[in-house]
Amino acid sequence: MKDETTQGPEIKSALLAGVIVFQIPINGSIGLLYLLSLLFMLSCLGIGTLVSTVARNQRQAMQMAFFFIFPSILLSGFVFPREAMPPSSMPSAT
Question: How many contiguous H segments (helices) and E segments (strands) does the chain have?
Fold first, then answer.
């Protein structure tokens, strides 16, 4: 039996669903995708550890998490296209 990390099955199932259900082609390196996914998960784990260490109760933890989540969603280009952002926020969005 092959020893896998905990991220392996979730990434594999998401990739398979994208390819089979939505016919999304995967271009590029699968290994690089796994590596960057691991980096993303570790950074999210670090933010969660920071929030849980600093917050004294659940309300503070939710507000601190919102402090990280809200700007990342707005600057990601998901809500507004990056081309429409003011030039001062462009470096933090890329």
Answer: 4, 0
Nearest to 47 by CA among 15, 76, 71: 71
Chain centroid to CA 89: how far? 20
Pair of tokens at residue 10: 């979730």
Q: Which two tokens stand for residue 66?
A: 């919102």
Apex 39 CA angle, 33 and 45, nearest 5: 135
What six digits make up the tokens of 16? 């398979």
And the tokens for 18?
């994208």
pTM score of the predicted model? 0.68
What pLDDT digit, counting tens, does each position of 24-61 carry? Answer: 998 999 999 889 888 988 998 999 999 999 999 999 99
Contact 14, 26 (CB under 8 A): no
